[in-house]
Amino acid sequence: MPKNSKGIEVAEIIKDRCMACQICIGECPVEAIELTREGVAEIDPEVCVGCGKCADVCPVEAVAFDRSKRRSVKPKRKKPRPRTEYVAVYIEQKDDQGADVAWELVGKARELAAKLQARVIGLVPGSGLDKVLNDAGAYGCDEVHCLEHECLASYVSFTYGHALTHLVTEIRPDILLVGATSQGRDLAGIVATHLKTGLTADCTGLDIEEETGLLLMTRPTFGGNIMATIFCEERRPQMSTVRPKVMPPPPREEGRDFSLVRHEWEPPKGKYPSIVEYIEDVSRLGMDITQYPVLVVAGRGACDPGSYPLLEELAGLLGGAVACSRPVVESGFMPYERQVGQTGKTVAPKLYIGIGVSGAIQHRVAIQGASRIMAVNTDSSAPIFQIADVGIVGDYTRVLPELISQIKQRMNVNA
Ligand SMILES: Cc1cc2nc3c(=O)[nH]c(=O)nc-3n(C[C@H](O)[C@H](O)[C@H](O)COP(=O)(O)OP(=O)(O)OC[C@H]3O[C@@H](n4cnc5c(N)ncnc54)[C@H](O)[C@@H]3O)c2cc1C
Ligand code: SF4
Ligand code: SF4
Question: Ligand 3 centroid to 144 CA: how many Å?
Answer without folding.
Answer: 43
